[in-house]
């Protein structure tokens, strides 16, 4: 929903990380530290003088197996020793990157391509229209408000004025139903921590309201516009904000004009420290629907709070508390709630539940409104008395409009093979807005008339490139176990399959995240360089529903890496490229993917770009929100899961004497989601293990986080370095 800070969207973004060999024995002697195989293999002398990294004798015992962790000290981010190590690594890395002759040309062209007008999907509230706009090279998009759709807008908030370096980002907005107030979140230096303020829309002035220690939360106004619901954690210990575990989230109600310590505690569960809460208010203002989540699993609970007597006057009712499926609130009609769910439907359906009935929690009492389809139902919105359902068919969008009884009225015609999103609004609206994008189609905003079923372009950007020169096709290849996996290939028309095409293979494969076609300036730069862009839709993602997701989790996580390696082998077999021309990349969970692939098949890739990756699979759950990923990864606390994790953990599978691809690890010193210690330790171990003459470098951004809200200037610098590294190591020219 674009009219409010969506707790579901915030949670999905937070837990989705914005990308094995035979299991180790559970008994036996102390294992060698990362970077050693137990034999005295001497690495070839490197062409790079890597900074000296101290090895400690830290050893942990997991279920009878001892595992060394010699670089544990790099987890302590603020010590003088770690800071000196970061400075030394950056000095080496930026020295190497600065010597790449193609780098200036890449930066110039990236800047030209990035300099185009971009709009967010508009939404309407209180009779006003709101949308974001970036004029091209602004570090952050600016939020505008207009009294009418065609009227001249005015600036409501410009995050670029909040810091000199553009690192303060607007993380979300929620407009009161009367259009008088805006609650908005800000985050500094890429942190997941947010601070909320309240702004008068008419004057553009902030009130005194200032809310802190908010993370993984949305904001939902009550119908009377006097206050809103949000979720927060207790203030962390001094100096621990970037790595302390996030537990015991609480749901509060904040009344405008009051201090935070007067906020009403709506719900907490002291008996469930890992439960999190996201509140949404129904259009009629009667229901607060609380999505209860635990970790990153797609199975959640759904509680309801009747607000008809006021906040906190009636008890919170545990409507659906079994955590047996995914349940998402869509909308309401009186006492009937529309719920999107995977209960009895792996690819999701929509049901109607009368919450006043005694048997409301019994699936047998629910009315199926939109039954499960062969395509994967990803989202549903309740707008203008319609249910707008967005599906994925082989990882590309299809959108259908149903009436409230579930009768199909029409499909929404989309411009082509791509991704559509948006479709927010209220039950009485007569219009909605959506965005469409593909690999060569810049994100275009459409207005959709709910009465006529017609779409018209609201804003279409102009980018300095010719999309007619490129084409996107979808292929299906066979993974190791026989599973058919889809992959998108984008390149210049007339590609010659001679095995010599520089190719960038990207993947994610986790947390039910679907990787769908989308426009990206860095990708466009790669295409202009003559590269092939390959995007594989791996298991672990959400492209084909929950079964596809679960097939890439926990003890089955190796399927994800097999799928990715299978994609590379397909590209080589089809003579699209060859190992000497193949680069791989991914971020977060995708960084783990790259780390696992390059340690399992170092011979298959020439360049690896693991970004903000989860590299230590034995300790990830000990920091910030890492415990929430156990539902996807499993935990080293479990003996069987430890064996699986140890078998593919990138940090623990580096072996001395191995020729690894040219690797540029990249992370940020303020990443409080995947803490930078993951990348620090992996880079140190890789430098110790590298036997070939290829570089093993780490790029550490400062005053930056996991990636959300990164200023345009920092994005240009980062991709200048990444593509410069790839171009140089693949022997490409501009």
Automatic annotation (TrEMBL):
PROSITE patterns: PRO_ENDOPEP_SER (PS00708), PROKAR_LIPOPROTEIN (PS51257). Keywords: Hydrolase, Protease, Serine protease, Signal. The keyword Hydrolase applies. It is an enzyme of class 3 (hydrolase). Its EC number is 3.4.21.26. It catalyses: Hydrolysis of Pro-|-Xaa >> Ala-|-Xaa in oligopeptides. Residues 523-732 form the Peptidase S9 prolyl oligopeptidase catalytic domain. InterPro entries: AB_hydrolase_fold (IPR029058), Pept_S9_AS (IPR002471), Pept_S9A_N (IPR023302), Peptidase_S9_cat (IPR001375), Peptidase_S9A (IPR002470), Prolyl_oligopep/macrocyclase (IPR051167). Pfam families: Peptidase_S9, Peptidase_S9_N. Residues 51-460 form the Peptidase S9A N-terminal domain. Belongs to the peptidase S9A family. This is prolyl oligopeptidase. It comes from Nannocystis radixulma. The lineage of its organism: Bacteria, Pseudomonadati, Myxococcota, Polyangia, Nannocystales.
